Amino acid sequence: MDIYLIKLILAHLIGDFFLQPDSWVKDKERKKLKSGKLYLHVAVHIVLIFVFFLSFNVWKIAFSIGVLHFIIDACKALFQTKKNARILFFVDQILHFSSIVLIWHLFYKGNLDISFLNNTKTWIVIAGALFLSMPTSIVMRVIIAKWIPENQPNSPQSLQNAGKYIGILERVLIFLFVLTNHFEAVGFLLAAKSIFRFGDLKEAHDIKLTEYVLIGTLLSFGIAIAIAMLTLQYIS
After folding, report:
1. What backbone torsions phi and psi does residue 180 show, to the nearest 5 degrees?
2. Same domain, 71 and 119
3. Which of 93, 108, 123 is the last residue of a domain?
4. How do residues 39-72 score in pLDDT, each as one tens digit?
């Protein structure tokens, strides 16, 4: 990757995540365009670009990114609500990184190498990872549906859909571990999950729940390893 693009990205990361206190964020959300912290935040980003490049000759780049950063943050402040705050956070960051790449391309004639998208192996890996997300969750739900234990009236409540997302994350991690030939990490992940679930199962005193968790865990790990090995076979 081009060193100029790396410097611009680092400047953004430090400015947005290290040098922007929560008080500034809340001030921008409350006062919108009247917030002095909004303009101070943009100024920090401009200064960081000068610091990373150690030159004032990049003033056009710094000013351009500063203007785009202000427009993006201003739009976010104007349209953000409690309901869309999480979505706008990711949209905001995507727009910031896109603007950085655009400025880098315009001033340094840089081009991102996306030739890997034309590689069959790339799409095989993507297909394997996607299959291990929602499709596998649905397949597992169908397989173990008849063993789902009934909820007890005094049983503790869990986060909504937490189990589904935990399963997706563990399968994707296993997928990456196997593709990178780190099978020991798969064992570590299984051991870590066993430790965290041991307390719950011990307190539950319910053999059906224990068996259900074991079936789900082993099925999830088994499918992930099988898909990873199959993917590895095709891309090798």
Report:
1. -95, 10
2. no
3. 108
4. 999 999 999 999 999 999 999 999 999 999 999 9
